[in-house]
Amino acid sequence: MTAIVGATVFDATGAPPRVANVVVRDGRIVAVGPNVRAPRGARVIDAKGKALLPGFFDLHTHWTPGGSPAATPAIATAYVKSGVTTVNDFHQAPESWEPRRRWLTTLATPHVNYTARTSTPGGHGADWGDVNTTKWVSTPEGARAAIRELIPYKPDVIKAFADGWRYGTSADNTSMDVSVLSALVDEAHKNRLKVGTHTVTVERGRVAARAKVDFIAHSLQDREVDPETAALIKGAGTFYAPTLAVYEPVKPGQTPPADRSDPRVAQSFRKFDYALRNVKILHDAGVPIALGTDAGMPGTPHGASTLREMELLVQAGLTPAEALIAGTATSAKVLDLLADRGTIEVGKRADLVLIAGRPWEAISDVRKTERVFIDGKQVFGPGVQLPAANAASAMPTLKGRALIDDFERADGRTSLDTLRTDDMDGGMDRTVQVSQVFTRPDGGKALGLAAKMAAKSDPYAGVVLPLSRGSVEPVDASAFKGIRLDVRGDGGTYELAITGLGGRWEAEIAAGPQWKTVEVPFSAFKPAGRRGGGPAPALTGADLQQVLLGGSRAAGERLWLEADNVAFY
What we know:
By secondary structure, this protein is an alpha/beta fold. Helix content is 20%, strand content 29%. It has ten helices and 30 strands.
Protein backbone atom coordinates (compact mmCIF):
# COMPACT_ATOMS: atom_id res chain seq x y z
CA MET A 1 0.00 0.00 0.00
CA THR A 2 1.22 3.51 -0.86
CA ALA A 3 0.11 6.92 0.40
CA ILE A 4 1.10 9.99 -1.60
CA VAL A 5 0.59 12.88 0.81
CA GLY A 6 0.44 16.62 0.37
CA ALA A 7 0.47 16.67 -3.44
CA THR A 8 -1.45 19.22 -5.46
CA VAL A 9 -3.74 16.88 -7.35
CA PHE A 10 -4.76 17.65 -10.92
CA ASP A 11 -7.31 14.89 -11.34
CA ALA A 12 -8.24 15.61 -15.00
CA THR A 13 -11.97 15.62 -14.23
CA GLY A 14 -12.20 19.36 -14.85
CA ALA A 15 -12.02 20.19 -11.13
CA PRO A 16 -9.40 22.75 -10.11
CA PRO A 17 -6.12 21.43 -8.68
CA ARG A 18 -6.27 20.88 -4.91
CA VAL A 19 -3.99 19.67 -2.16
CA ALA A 20 -4.94 16.11 -1.26
CA ASN A 21 -3.63 12.75 -0.18
CA VAL A 22 -3.97 9.70 -2.43
CA VAL A 23 -3.92 6.12 -1.16
CA VAL A 24 -3.17 3.23 -3.50
CA ARG A 25 -3.76 -0.44 -2.77
CA ASP A 26 -3.54 -3.45 -5.08
CA GLY A 27 -2.98 -1.24 -8.11
CA ARG A 28 -6.07 0.91 -7.54
CA ILE A 29 -6.79 4.30 -6.02
CA VAL A 30 -8.76 3.63 -2.83
CA ALA A 31 -8.93 7.11 -1.30
CA VAL A 32 -8.46 10.73 -2.42
CA GLY A 33 -8.93 13.84 -0.33
CA PRO A 34 -7.42 16.47 1.94
CA ASN A 35 -8.44 14.61 5.11
CA VAL A 36 -7.42 11.13 3.99
CA ARG A 37 -4.88 9.60 6.35
CA ALA A 38 -2.07 7.27 5.40
CA PRO A 39 -3.06 3.77 6.55
CA ARG A 40 -0.84 2.05 9.07
CA GLY A 41 1.96 0.18 7.34
CA ALA A 42 1.61 2.12 4.10
CA ARG A 43 4.65 3.41 2.28
CA VAL A 44 4.38 7.19 2.60
CA ILE A 45 5.65 9.53 -0.13
CA ASP A 46 5.92 13.17 0.87
CA ALA A 47 4.71 15.09 -2.17
CA LYS A 48 4.30 18.56 -0.69
CA GLY A 49 4.87 21.19 -3.35
CA LYS A 50 4.61 18.59 -6.13
CA ALA A 51 1.87 17.98 -8.71
CA LEU A 52 0.16 14.59 -9.01
CA LEU A 53 -1.51 13.83 -12.34
CA PRO A 54 -2.97 10.80 -14.09
CA GLY A 55 -0.47 8.98 -16.29
CA PHE A 56 -0.27 10.31 -19.83
CA PHE A 57 -1.59 8.62 -22.98
CA ASP A 58 -0.18 8.49 -26.49
CA LEU A 59 -2.71 7.23 -29.02
CA HIS A 60 -0.30 7.03 -31.96
CA THR A 61 3.14 5.42 -31.68
CA HIS A 62 5.30 3.06 -33.74
CA TRP A 63 7.47 0.82 -31.56
CA THR A 64 9.80 -0.87 -34.03
CA PRO A 65 10.56 1.15 -37.14
CA GLY A 66 13.02 -0.88 -39.21
CA GLY A 67 11.33 -4.15 -38.34
CA SER A 68 13.56 -5.08 -35.40
CA PRO A 69 12.03 -5.86 -32.01
CA ALA A 70 15.37 -5.09 -30.34
CA ALA A 71 14.32 -1.53 -29.48
CA THR A 72 11.31 -2.64 -27.42
CA PRO A 73 12.88 -2.44 -23.92
CA ALA A 74 14.46 0.95 -24.61
CA ILE A 75 11.16 2.31 -25.94
CA ALA A 76 9.28 1.03 -22.90
CA THR A 77 11.83 2.70 -20.62
CA ALA A 78 11.56 6.01 -22.49
CA TYR A 79 7.80 6.10 -21.96
CA VAL A 80 8.03 5.11 -18.31
CA LYS A 81 10.53 7.88 -17.60
CA SER A 82 8.27 10.42 -19.29
CA GLY A 83 5.18 9.52 -17.29
CA VAL A 84 3.42 7.93 -20.28
CA THR A 85 1.44 4.98 -18.98
CA THR A 86 -0.83 3.95 -21.91
CA VAL A 87 0.04 3.87 -25.62
CA ASN A 88 -1.31 2.54 -28.89
CA ASP A 89 1.33 0.79 -31.01
CA PHE A 90 0.43 1.16 -34.70
CA HIS A 91 3.39 -0.77 -36.08
CA GLN A 92 3.19 -4.50 -35.38
CA ALA A 93 1.97 -7.44 -37.41
CA PRO A 94 -0.78 -9.34 -35.55
CA GLU A 95 1.37 -12.48 -35.68
CA SER A 96 3.81 -10.73 -33.34
CA TRP A 97 1.31 -9.66 -30.68
CA GLU A 98 1.31 -12.88 -28.63
CA PRO A 99 5.10 -12.97 -28.03
CA ARG A 100 5.19 -9.20 -27.61
CA ARG A 101 2.49 -9.35 -24.95
CA ARG A 102 4.52 -12.00 -23.14
CA TRP A 103 7.61 -9.83 -23.43
CA LEU A 104 5.85 -6.82 -21.92
CA THR A 105 5.08 -8.80 -18.77
CA THR A 106 8.84 -8.87 -18.05
CA LEU A 107 9.35 -5.12 -18.50
CA ALA A 108 8.57 -1.89 -16.71
CA THR A 109 6.36 -0.60 -19.49
CA PRO A 110 3.27 1.41 -20.24
CA HIS A 111 0.09 -0.45 -21.09
CA VAL A 112 0.41 -1.17 -24.82
CA ASN A 113 -2.64 -1.48 -27.07
CA TYR A 114 -1.79 -3.40 -30.23
CA THR A 115 -3.45 -1.89 -33.26
CA ALA A 116 -4.48 -3.80 -36.38
CA ARG A 117 -3.75 -1.97 -39.62
CA THR A 118 -6.02 -1.79 -42.68
CA SER A 119 -5.56 0.07 -45.95
CA THR A 120 -6.54 0.01 -49.59
CA PRO A 121 -4.42 -1.63 -52.32
CA GLY A 122 -1.96 1.09 -53.27
CA GLY A 123 -2.80 2.99 -50.11
CA HIS A 124 -0.55 4.45 -47.45
CA GLY A 125 0.38 1.66 -45.04
CA ALA A 126 -0.02 -0.90 -47.83
CA ASP A 127 3.14 0.38 -49.49
CA TRP A 128 5.40 -1.77 -47.31
CA GLY A 129 5.16 -5.02 -45.37
CA ASP A 130 2.86 -7.96 -45.95
CA VAL A 131 -0.89 -8.42 -45.76
CA ASN A 132 -0.68 -9.72 -42.21
CA THR A 133 0.95 -6.46 -41.13
CA THR A 134 -1.62 -4.41 -43.07
CA LYS A 135 -4.88 -5.86 -44.38
CA TRP A 136 -5.80 -4.62 -47.86
CA VAL A 137 -9.48 -3.84 -48.37
CA SER A 138 -11.31 -2.30 -51.34
CA THR A 139 -14.98 -3.21 -50.80
CA PRO A 140 -17.38 -3.15 -47.85
CA GLU A 141 -17.45 -6.95 -47.88
CA GLY A 142 -13.67 -7.08 -47.86
CA ALA A 143 -13.49 -4.62 -44.98
CA ARG A 144 -15.83 -6.70 -42.86
CA ALA A 145 -13.94 -9.88 -43.70
CA ALA A 146 -10.65 -8.24 -42.71
CA ILE A 147 -11.96 -7.32 -39.27
CA ARG A 148 -13.31 -10.83 -38.75
CA GLU A 149 -9.93 -12.30 -39.75
CA LEU A 150 -8.21 -10.11 -37.16
CA ILE A 151 -10.44 -11.01 -34.22
CA PRO A 152 -8.58 -14.24 -33.27
CA TYR A 153 -5.44 -12.14 -32.70
CA LYS A 154 -7.32 -10.05 -30.10
CA PRO A 155 -6.59 -6.56 -31.41
CA ASP A 156 -7.03 -3.65 -29.02
CA VAL A 157 -7.69 -0.99 -31.69
CA ILE A 158 -8.19 -0.83 -35.46
CA LYS A 159 -6.37 1.66 -37.70
CA ALA A 160 -7.58 2.52 -41.18
CA PHE A 161 -5.23 4.27 -43.60
CA ALA A 162 -8.11 6.13 -45.17
CA ASP A 163 -6.37 9.13 -46.76
CA GLY A 164 -3.79 8.82 -49.53
CA TRP A 165 -2.66 12.47 -49.68
CA ARG A 166 1.13 12.58 -49.46
CA TYR A 167 1.34 16.19 -48.30
CA GLY A 168 1.78 17.69 -51.76
CA THR A 169 5.39 16.51 -51.98
CA SER A 170 4.98 13.14 -53.74
CA ALA A 171 2.42 11.15 -55.68
CA ASP A 172 -0.76 10.42 -53.75
CA ASN A 173 -1.70 6.95 -52.60
CA THR A 174 -5.19 5.53 -52.94
CA SER A 175 -7.84 6.43 -50.35
CA MET A 176 -10.65 4.50 -48.66
CA ASP A 177 -14.13 5.57 -49.73
CA VAL A 178 -16.95 6.15 -47.29
CA SER A 179 -18.75 2.86 -48.00
CA VAL A 180 -15.66 0.78 -47.27
CA LEU A 181 -14.69 2.81 -44.21
CA SER A 182 -18.25 2.72 -42.86
CA ALA A 183 -18.40 -1.06 -43.18
CA LEU A 184 -15.01 -1.40 -41.48
CA VAL A 185 -16.09 0.83 -38.59
CA ASP A 186 -19.42 -0.96 -38.23
CA GLU A 187 -17.79 -4.40 -38.12
CA ALA A 188 -15.19 -3.17 -35.64
CA HIS A 189 -17.86 -1.68 -33.40
CA LYS A 190 -19.79 -4.94 -33.49
CA ASN A 191 -16.65 -6.46 -31.96
CA ARG A 192 -16.30 -3.61 -29.44
CA LEU A 193 -13.21 -2.20 -31.12
CA LYS A 194 -12.43 1.48 -31.64
CA VAL A 195 -11.25 2.75 -35.02
CA GLY A 196 -8.71 5.49 -35.70
CA THR A 197 -7.86 6.77 -39.16
CA HIS A 198 -4.82 8.10 -40.92
CA THR A 199 -6.61 11.21 -42.18
CA VAL A 200 -4.70 14.33 -43.21
CA THR A 201 -7.03 16.36 -45.47
CA VAL A 202 -10.21 18.25 -44.70
CA GLU A 203 -12.26 16.39 -47.30
CA ARG A 204 -11.16 13.03 -45.93
CA GLY A 205 -11.97 14.33 -42.46
CA ARG A 206 -15.54 14.61 -43.67
CA VAL A 207 -15.38 11.00 -44.90
CA ALA A 208 -14.10 9.87 -41.51
CA ALA A 209 -16.96 11.66 -39.78
CA ARG A 210 -19.59 10.21 -42.11
CA ALA A 211 -18.17 6.74 -41.41
CA LYS A 212 -18.45 7.36 -37.62
CA VAL A 213 -14.73 6.87 -37.03
CA ASP A 214 -13.83 7.08 -33.33
CA PHE A 215 -10.74 9.24 -33.73
CA ILE A 216 -8.72 10.94 -36.42
CA ALA A 217 -5.08 10.09 -35.73
CA HIS A 218 -3.37 12.94 -37.60
CA SER A 219 -3.81 16.62 -38.41
CA LEU A 220 -6.04 17.89 -41.19
CA GLN A 221 -3.50 20.11 -42.86
CA ASP A 222 -4.21 20.80 -46.51
CA ARG A 223 -6.39 23.81 -45.71
CA GLU A 224 -8.34 25.44 -42.91
CA VAL A 225 -11.26 23.41 -41.58
CA ASP A 226 -14.56 25.01 -42.56
CA PRO A 227 -17.49 25.31 -40.12
CA GLU A 228 -19.51 22.62 -41.91
CA THR A 229 -16.71 20.08 -41.60
CA ALA A 230 -16.10 20.97 -37.95
CA ALA A 231 -19.81 20.49 -37.23
CA LEU A 232 -19.83 17.17 -39.09
CA ILE A 233 -16.86 15.85 -37.07
CA LYS A 234 -18.40 17.00 -33.81
CA GLY A 235 -21.78 15.53 -34.69
CA ALA A 236 -20.20 12.16 -35.45
CA GLY A 237 -18.65 12.04 -31.99
CA THR A 238 -15.21 11.73 -33.59
CA PHE A 239 -12.19 12.67 -31.47
CA TYR A 240 -9.11 14.42 -32.88
CA ALA A 241 -5.50 13.44 -32.06
CA PRO A 242 -3.47 15.78 -34.29
CA THR A 243 0.09 14.40 -33.89
CA LEU A 244 1.57 17.88 -34.06
CA ALA A 245 4.91 16.58 -32.81
CA VAL A 246 5.63 14.64 -35.99
CA TYR A 247 4.70 17.58 -38.22
CA GLU A 248 6.62 20.28 -36.37
CA PRO A 249 8.97 21.47 -39.12
CA VAL A 250 11.81 22.37 -36.78
CA LYS A 251 12.00 19.82 -33.99
CA PRO A 252 13.45 20.67 -30.56
CA GLY A 253 17.22 20.91 -30.87
CA GLN A 254 17.19 21.19 -34.65
CA THR A 255 18.63 24.12 -36.59
CA PRO A 256 16.02 26.01 -38.64
CA PRO A 257 16.50 25.70 -42.41
CA ALA A 258 18.55 28.47 -43.94
CA ASP A 259 16.34 28.62 -47.03
CA ARG A 260 12.61 28.47 -46.38
CA SER A 261 11.88 29.10 -50.06
CA ASP A 262 12.69 25.48 -50.93
CA PRO A 263 9.30 24.00 -51.97
CA ARG A 264 9.41 21.06 -49.57
CA VAL A 265 10.52 23.26 -46.67
CA ALA A 266 7.87 25.86 -47.46
CA GLN A 267 5.23 23.14 -47.64
CA SER A 268 6.24 21.74 -44.24
CA PHE A 269 5.73 25.15 -42.62
CA ARG A 270 2.47 25.71 -44.49
CA LYS A 271 1.07 22.33 -43.40
CA PHE A 272 2.07 22.90 -39.80
CA ASP A 273 0.41 26.29 -39.75
CA TYR A 274 -2.84 24.68 -40.94
CA ALA A 275 -2.38 21.90 -38.39
CA LEU A 276 -2.09 24.36 -35.50
CA ARG A 277 -5.03 26.46 -36.68
CA ASN A 278 -7.25 23.43 -37.20
CA VAL A 279 -6.69 22.17 -33.66
CA LYS A 280 -8.09 25.45 -32.34
CA ILE A 281 -10.94 25.52 -34.85
CA LEU A 282 -12.04 22.00 -33.99
CA HIS A 283 -11.56 22.53 -30.26
CA ASP A 284 -13.67 25.69 -30.35
CA ALA A 285 -16.32 23.79 -32.33
CA GLY A 286 -16.58 21.24 -29.50
CA VAL A 287 -14.56 18.38 -31.02
CA PRO A 288 -12.71 16.57 -28.20
CA ILE A 289 -8.93 16.87 -28.57
CA ALA A 290 -6.87 13.79 -27.65
CA LEU A 291 -3.14 13.13 -27.72
CA GLY A 292 -1.07 11.21 -30.25
CA THR A 293 2.38 11.85 -31.68
CA ASP A 294 3.42 9.32 -34.37
CA ALA A 295 6.44 8.68 -32.15
CA GLY A 296 9.04 6.46 -33.73
CA MET A 297 8.95 8.39 -36.97
CA PRO A 298 11.99 10.58 -37.82
CA GLY A 299 12.62 13.35 -35.30
CA THR A 300 9.80 12.15 -33.06
CA PRO A 301 11.37 10.28 -30.12
CA HIS A 302 9.38 8.05 -27.83
CA GLY A 303 8.26 9.58 -24.54
CA ALA A 304 9.68 13.05 -25.09
CA SER A 305 7.34 13.59 -28.05
CA THR A 306 4.28 12.93 -25.88
CA LEU A 307 5.35 15.77 -23.61
CA ARG A 308 6.16 17.95 -26.61
CA GLU A 309 2.68 17.29 -28.01
CA MET A 310 1.11 18.88 -24.93
CA GLU A 311 3.30 21.94 -25.40
CA LEU A 312 2.22 22.13 -29.05
CA LEU A 313 -1.45 21.83 -28.11
CA VAL A 314 -0.94 24.91 -25.96
CA GLN A 315 0.82 26.61 -28.87
CA ALA A 316 -2.26 25.79 -30.95
CA GLY A 317 -4.51 27.61 -28.50
CA LEU A 318 -5.53 25.19 -25.76
CA THR A 319 -4.91 26.17 -22.17
CA PRO A 320 -2.33 24.11 -20.26
CA ALA A 321 -5.14 22.47 -18.30
CA GLU A 322 -6.97 21.57 -21.51
CA ALA A 323 -3.77 20.07 -22.95
CA LEU A 324 -3.32 17.96 -19.80
CA ILE A 325 -6.88 16.68 -20.05
CA ALA A 326 -6.33 15.89 -23.74
CA GLY A 327 -3.36 13.74 -22.73
CA THR A 328 -5.21 11.95 -19.95
CA ALA A 329 -9.01 11.77 -19.56
CA THR A 330 -9.95 12.56 -23.16
CA SER A 331 -7.51 10.04 -24.59
CA ALA A 332 -8.81 7.44 -22.13
CA LYS A 333 -12.34 8.18 -23.30
CA VAL A 334 -11.33 7.65 -26.95
CA LEU A 335 -10.42 4.06 -26.09
CA ASP A 336 -13.41 3.54 -23.82
CA LEU A 337 -11.00 3.27 -20.87
CA LEU A 338 -12.19 6.22 -18.81
CA ALA A 339 -13.94 3.96 -16.32
CA ASP A 340 -10.57 2.32 -15.67
CA ARG A 341 -7.96 5.12 -15.90
CA GLY A 342 -7.25 8.63 -17.09
CA THR A 343 -8.37 10.51 -13.98
CA ILE A 344 -7.44 10.43 -10.30
CA GLU A 345 -10.59 9.07 -8.69
CA VAL A 346 -11.42 6.28 -6.27
CA GLY A 347 -11.56 2.93 -8.02
CA LYS A 348 -9.40 3.98 -10.95
CA ARG A 349 -6.18 2.25 -11.96
CA ALA A 350 -3.26 3.88 -10.15
CA ASP A 351 -1.35 5.10 -13.21
CA LEU A 352 0.12 8.32 -11.83
CA VAL A 353 2.90 10.82 -12.46
CA LEU A 354 4.41 13.09 -9.81
CA ILE A 355 5.87 16.30 -11.20
CA ALA A 356 8.03 19.01 -9.65
CA GLY A 357 5.98 21.89 -10.97
CA ARG A 358 2.54 23.20 -11.84
CA PRO A 359 1.93 22.11 -15.45
CA TRP A 360 -1.63 23.47 -15.50
CA GLU A 361 0.03 26.89 -15.33
CA ALA A 362 3.27 26.21 -17.26
CA ILE A 363 2.82 23.25 -19.59
CA SER A 364 6.59 22.74 -19.94
CA ASP A 365 6.57 21.53 -16.34
CA VAL A 366 5.38 18.15 -17.67
CA ARG A 367 9.07 17.51 -18.33
CA LYS A 368 9.89 17.67 -14.61
CA THR A 369 8.94 14.07 -13.88
CA GLU A 370 9.92 12.84 -10.39
CA ARG A 371 8.03 9.57 -9.95
CA VAL A 372 5.85 7.40 -12.14
CA PHE A 373 3.44 4.69 -11.01
CA ILE A 374 1.84 2.06 -13.22
CA ASP A 375 -0.79 -0.19 -11.65
CA GLY A 376 0.21 1.33 -8.32
CA LYS A 377 3.83 0.21 -8.61
CA GLN A 378 6.52 2.88 -8.79
CA VAL A 379 8.45 2.33 -12.02
CA PHE A 380 10.48 5.55 -12.11
CA GLY A 381 11.95 7.79 -9.44
CA PRO A 382 14.07 7.60 -6.30
CA GLY A 383 14.89 4.07 -5.19
CA VAL A 384 13.55 2.37 -8.33
CA GLN A 385 15.61 -0.17 -10.21
CA LEU A 386 14.14 -1.25 -13.51
CA PRO A 387 13.86 -4.98 -14.28
CA ALA A 388 16.88 -6.50 -15.98
CA ALA A 389 14.73 -7.08 -19.07
CA ASN A 390 14.53 -3.30 -19.61
CA ALA A 391 18.29 -3.32 -20.29
CA ALA A 392 18.15 -6.30 -22.66
CA SER A 393 17.87 -6.02 -26.42
CA ALA A 394 15.80 -9.12 -27.10
CA MET A 395 13.65 -11.84 -25.64
CA PRO A 396 15.43 -15.02 -24.52
CA THR A 397 16.74 -17.04 -27.45
CA LEU A 398 14.93 -20.16 -28.68
CA LYS A 399 16.82 -23.28 -29.73
CA GLY A 400 16.76 -23.73 -33.49
CA ARG A 401 15.06 -26.75 -35.03
CA ALA A 402 16.29 -28.38 -38.24
CA LEU A 403 13.08 -28.37 -40.30
CA ILE A 404 11.86 -24.91 -41.18
CA ASP A 405 9.11 -25.74 -43.69
CA ASP A 406 8.15 -28.78 -45.73
CA PHE A 407 4.90 -27.07 -46.83
CA GLU A 408 2.73 -30.00 -45.74
CA ARG A 409 0.42 -27.91 -43.57
CA ALA A 410 -2.80 -26.70 -45.19
CA ASP A 411 -3.25 -23.59 -43.05
CA GLY A 412 -0.53 -21.36 -44.49
CA ARG A 413 1.81 -21.90 -41.57
CA THR A 414 5.32 -23.32 -41.62
CA SER A 415 6.52 -26.49 -39.94
CA LEU A 416 7.56 -24.21 -37.04
CA ASP A 417 3.92 -23.02 -36.70
CA THR A 418 4.81 -19.55 -37.94
CA LEU A 419 2.86 -17.63 -40.58
CA ARG A 420 4.43 -17.72 -44.03
CA THR A 421 4.09 -14.31 -45.72
CA ASP A 422 4.71 -12.73 -49.11
CA ASP A 423 7.63 -10.34 -49.38
CA MET A 424 7.38 -8.19 -52.49
CA ASP A 425 9.03 -4.81 -52.98
CA GLY A 426 7.56 -1.68 -51.42
CA GLY A 427 6.00 1.47 -52.84
CA MET A 428 2.73 2.28 -54.57
CA ASP A 429 3.56 0.10 -57.58
CA ARG A 430 4.38 -3.24 -55.99
CA THR A 431 5.33 -6.43 -57.77
CA VAL A 432 2.29 -8.67 -58.22
CA GLN A 433 2.92 -12.13 -56.85
CA VAL A 434 1.08 -15.29 -55.86
CA SER A 435 2.54 -17.89 -53.53
CA GLN A 436 0.68 -21.10 -52.85
CA VAL A 437 1.24 -24.66 -51.76
CA PHE A 438 0.69 -27.34 -54.41
CA THR A 439 0.95 -31.13 -54.60
CA ARG A 440 4.05 -32.45 -56.33
CA PRO A 441 3.53 -35.16 -58.99
CA ASP A 442 5.73 -37.53 -57.01
CA GLY A 443 3.80 -36.90 -53.78
CA GLY A 444 4.08 -34.43 -50.96
CA LYS A 445 3.60 -30.69 -51.13
CA ALA A 446 5.82 -27.78 -52.14
CA LEU A 447 5.61 -24.00 -52.40
CA GLY A 448 5.13 -22.25 -55.71
CA LEU A 449 5.86 -18.57 -56.29
CA ALA A 450 4.87 -16.70 -59.46
CA ALA A 451 5.32 -12.97 -59.98
CA LYS A 452 5.24 -10.15 -62.49
CA MET A 453 7.85 -7.53 -61.67
CA ALA A 454 6.85 -3.95 -60.99
CA ALA A 455 8.07 -1.18 -63.27
CA LYS A 456 10.96 -0.03 -61.13
CA SER A 457 14.72 -0.39 -61.00
CA ASP A 458 14.82 -2.98 -58.21
CA PRO A 459 11.66 -5.11 -58.24
CA TYR A 460 11.53 -8.14 -55.97
CA ALA A 461 9.23 -11.05 -55.17
CA GLY A 462 9.66 -13.54 -52.38
CA VAL A 463 8.36 -15.31 -49.33
CA VAL A 464 9.28 -15.05 -45.66
CA LEU A 465 9.62 -18.08 -43.40
CA PRO A 466 9.68 -16.75 -39.82
CA LEU A 467 11.76 -18.81 -37.41
CA SER A 468 9.58 -17.81 -34.46
CA ARG A 469 6.09 -16.42 -34.19
CA GLY A 470 6.06 -12.90 -35.56
CA SER A 471 9.88 -13.06 -35.82
CA VAL A 472 10.08 -11.63 -32.29
CA GLU A 473 11.98 -14.28 -30.33
CA PRO A 474 15.49 -14.81 -31.79
CA VAL A 475 16.52 -18.36 -32.69
CA ASP A 476 19.94 -19.91 -32.15
CA ALA A 477 20.81 -22.06 -35.15
CA SER A 478 24.57 -21.98 -34.53
CA ALA A 479 24.59 -25.76 -34.03
CA PHE A 480 23.90 -26.10 -37.77
CA LYS A 481 26.16 -25.46 -40.77
CA GLY A 482 23.77 -23.76 -43.16
CA ILE A 483 20.47 -24.08 -45.06
CA ARG A 484 19.38 -26.91 -47.36
CA LEU A 485 16.36 -26.84 -49.67
CA ASP A 486 14.90 -28.49 -52.75
CA VAL A 487 14.31 -26.01 -55.54
CA ARG A 488 13.47 -25.57 -59.19
CA GLY A 489 12.76 -22.44 -61.24
CA ASP A 490 12.83 -20.56 -64.50
CA GLY A 491 16.56 -20.96 -65.05
CA GLY A 492 17.59 -17.70 -63.46
CA THR A 493 19.25 -16.86 -60.18
CA TYR A 494 17.44 -16.36 -56.90
CA GLU A 495 18.19 -14.91 -53.51
CA LEU A 496 18.28 -16.89 -50.28
CA ALA A 497 18.49 -14.56 -47.29
CA ILE A 498 18.59 -14.74 -43.52
CA THR A 499 17.73 -11.92 -41.12
CA GLY A 500 18.60 -11.69 -37.45
CA LEU A 501 19.26 -9.23 -34.68
CA GLY A 502 22.67 -8.56 -36.22
CA GLY A 503 21.42 -7.68 -39.70
CA ARG A 504 20.73 -9.38 -43.01
CA TRP A 505 22.81 -11.90 -45.01
CA GLU A 506 22.26 -13.00 -48.60
CA ALA A 507 23.38 -15.80 -50.90
CA GLU A 508 22.69 -16.41 -54.59
CA ILE A 509 21.32 -19.72 -55.82
CA ALA A 510 20.44 -20.93 -59.32
CA ALA A 511 17.49 -23.12 -60.25
CA GLY A 512 16.40 -24.68 -63.54
CA PRO A 513 13.31 -26.69 -64.49
CA GLN A 514 14.46 -29.87 -62.73
CA TRP A 515 14.27 -30.31 -58.95
CA LYS A 516 17.62 -30.25 -57.19
CA THR A 517 18.84 -30.05 -53.61
CA VAL A 518 20.92 -27.02 -52.70
CA GLU A 519 23.07 -26.63 -49.60
CA VAL A 520 24.24 -23.13 -48.68
CA PRO A 521 26.67 -22.97 -45.74
CA PHE A 522 26.46 -19.99 -43.43
CA SER A 523 29.92 -18.98 -44.64
CA ALA A 524 28.51 -18.40 -48.15
CA PHE A 525 26.06 -15.74 -46.96
CA LYS A 526 27.33 -12.22 -47.52
CA PRO A 527 26.49 -9.40 -45.10
CA ALA A 528 23.86 -7.11 -46.64
CA GLY A 529 23.61 -4.50 -43.94
CA ARG A 530 22.93 -3.94 -40.28
CA ARG A 531 19.86 -2.17 -38.95
CA GLY A 532 20.93 1.34 -38.11
CA GLY A 533 23.66 1.31 -40.77
CA GLY A 534 27.03 -0.28 -41.31
CA PRO A 535 27.94 -3.82 -42.39
CA ALA A 536 26.47 -6.84 -40.66
CA PRO A 537 28.92 -9.14 -38.85
CA ALA A 538 29.74 -12.58 -40.20
CA LEU A 539 26.81 -14.99 -40.03
CA THR A 540 27.20 -17.49 -37.20
CA GLY A 541 23.65 -18.81 -36.99
CA ALA A 542 22.94 -17.08 -33.66
CA ASP A 543 20.01 -14.72 -32.99
CA LEU A 544 18.19 -15.41 -36.26
CA GLN A 545 14.66 -14.30 -37.11
CA GLN A 546 13.69 -15.18 -40.68
CA VAL A 547 14.64 -17.12 -43.80
CA LEU A 548 13.65 -15.47 -47.08
CA LEU A 549 13.54 -16.89 -50.58
CA GLY A 550 12.84 -14.87 -53.71
CA GLY A 551 14.32 -13.08 -56.64
CA SER A 552 14.37 -10.16 -59.03
CA ARG A 553 13.95 -9.80 -62.76
CA ALA A 554 13.79 -6.81 -65.07
CA ALA A 555 10.77 -4.51 -64.84
CA GLY A 556 7.69 -6.17 -66.31
CA GLU A 557 9.29 -9.61 -66.56
CA ARG A 558 7.94 -12.74 -64.89
CA LEU A 559 9.53 -15.02 -62.32
CA TRP A 560 8.60 -18.44 -61.07
CA LEU A 561 10.14 -20.57 -58.37
CA GLU A 562 9.22 -23.73 -56.48
CA ALA A 563 10.75 -24.85 -53.19
CA ASP A 564 10.43 -27.68 -50.72
CA ASN A 565 12.00 -29.09 -47.55
CA VAL A 566 13.67 -25.91 -46.32
CA ALA A 567 15.82 -26.81 -43.33
CA PHE A 568 18.98 -26.12 -41.40
CA TYR A 569 21.60 -28.85 -41.87
